[in-house]
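Thread: Modeling a multi-component assembly for a lab meeting

Hi all, long-time lurker, first post. My supervisor asked me to bring a structural picture of a complex we are working on to next week's group meeting, and I have zero experience with this. I have the sequence lines for every component (252 residues in total). Could someone generate the structure of the whole assembly? Inputs are pasted exactly as I received them:
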Amino acid sequence: MCVHELQVLQTKLADFEKAGGTAVAISSGSVEDSAAMAESAGLKFTVLSDPELKAIDAWGLRHSDTLMSKEMSRPAAFFLRADGSVADSFQPESYRYTLTEEVITAGFAKTAE
Amino acid sequence: MGFSVLLALLGTLLVFGGAFLLLPVAPELPVLSAGDFPRYVMIGLGMGWSLLGTLQVFRLGRGKAAKVLLGLLLVFTQVAGAGAIWWAADYSFRLPAAIETPAGTPMPTFELKDTQGKLVSSESFRGKRVVLVFFRGPW
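Re: Modeling a multi-component assembly
Sure thing. I ran the full set together rather than chain by chain. Output:
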């Protein structure tokens, strides 16, 4: 997931909120880096920092990125029902596959089932 | 003429040498990392030499058989070089297999700071339908 995908998510936020939903993004970046990114990208949903990879490990998403020489999260999206259970997930096998508006819309629809 | 043939043949050797060195390590290394960069240079240089040598033979040489053979070798070399680079580049975008998260899996609990530095608990999302996105980083 990159900033562009988060901006796609932002365009759907109003629809989510009307349907009793919300969006949350998590990365291993610091609070300061996340705040700067959220402001420059115009993100209005919750952006959380996980530099110690607690949530990232809890979801089994830790990834050693050799290009950036960092431990970080692999890209993933989880669509959660109101009871906190997973309704659907998107975990691409390659950085080539990105989170699109269609994937977001279809995934969010499943949270009502 | 002799030098041009030699250049074309050396180019082919470089391409295959580079591919031989690149392909086994590509799954562990990203594109243009310090580790695999010399191998890409080797393949690129080989493709260039092969092209240059063959074009010189076509320009200066007289033997039809040599032109046909070098022409075929040129095509073979360029396809092999481009193929090796494409394969390695494609491989570098791949991610390890994801841990299965079947429908119905409960959300693990966590508590993290938001952009204001305020702690946010995953429990605060209960009662809402949530799109939870993990991304690489804000850099």
